[in-house]
Predict the structure.
Amino acid sequence: MRRLENVRGETGEIPDRTVNGENGDRIAVLLRNVTTAYPRSKDPALKNISISIEYGSLTLVTGPNGAGKTTLLELILGFLRPLKGIVRVLGFEMPKYARKVRLMSSYLMQDFMKPPNETYTVKQVVSMGLAPFKGPIRPLSKREKERVEWAIKIVGLEGLEEKPIGILSGGQQQRAFLARVIVRQPKLILLDEPFSSLDREGRLETSKLINDIRKRLNSTVIVVSHDISPIINYVDKIIEMENGHVVRCE
Amino acid sequence: MRMIFMTLLFIEALVAALLAGSLCGVLGTYLRKLGLLTLCFTVAHAALAGASFSILFSTPPELTAFSFSVVAAFVVEFLYYRVGIEREIISMCTFSLSSALAMIAIYMSPSVTLTSETASLILWGSILAVTPAKIMLLTLLSISLIVYILSFKLEIDALLFDIKLAEAEGVNIQFHSTILLLLTALAISIILKLTGGFLVFALLFNPIAAVERLSYKRQPLLGGIVGGISGLIGVVISYIFDTPIGATIAITASFTLIIGVSISSILEYFRRKKLKHLE
């Protein structure tokens, strides 16, 4: 057991909700013989896949377009129901406990870019990450506000808190969303194509930032990307997918 | 004496129209942002069906209208969340069913009832439908909406900003959709007799259409202001020219879109002119 701040910002024990894998590892995400399909779709999007991802690891899921990478993330978050097999995330069966798992997770979506006319500020967007934990009536506490400022500082957006997110560049917007990811201090972080709108230098910086966040928060991180070069030095496991199957896992 | 009575009636109608317009303007904005406008349309027609059945069975119109609209909203949401039918499709099916039920109820109603004041109020609206009790109900509903918005401001902002991301982060979308739809059903049931069942949704849709052209900031507040002004002007014109109040409010609400487009076009013209000078 380790003493860490949990997602509510309170110090507490991490409950032991792991499942023993083949080697007795602590498994954060377990898929066993899972097949799933989108509603009204004739063909399964994922076919009989089995994956196990350890707590605290950084896993890269890669493959060509249409391989099923984003589908995998949607399955993990409970947006899709398995037609067959078991999905267990952070010890909870999915999608039955989807909301519980989502409260312990953070997600960076593939299409995160906001148009220039979006007027919510960086600070407001990052604060929204704490919305499900805040409860009605009371405003954000002093501690929660400090956490928002801390998250903005970590991603290097200090000074841009009051800027509307719509006027920021692609890279800056992505950092704002990364700040929203980390302000929740999640157990599980899912990043879908985090390098897509970045140049080479931006990709390397973001890779380093992702690894720093993983270490700082002790979170399990799953990165979906068809470009493996920026993050290859930091990953613990690579899962290669093609046409809804897992073709390589190392 | 008659003058005093007419003046009081007029003032009550103004207050009711202001409250109804503001309430619907704010609700319409949130429903639009959450992608629930079609469902709102369905709820409004279900309320009309309910009110029509109240003519047939002589039940309290507001209660029957509210019951029908709540049932319609829950049926649509149940089929969407549990069965997986697209919300737009099931909303349109429910809308057509509600309209058909309304027509049948009107057709089957005794002629005497149809020619009565009650039927007129429900179908076309009337200034005579405004009572102090209705104004009190509208006030309470407005306060409830304000309390709800302020209490859940951060969650609502998260939903308005990116609904999919908010859902992925654990925000309870079903809860907020249900609250907004219940408030809408209540609002429609109360103002049904003021604007009439066929035109009540003009106050829900037209202000947001105008506001989206005018500004990206504070749209719910602007929606409320535009809706309130539409209601006020509609009542004044209806009073002066002795026109049906519901239809007149619907027309003034429609004009807000034309005004919104005109103002935004003028502002855009001057903005571009200013940018050209800066070059």
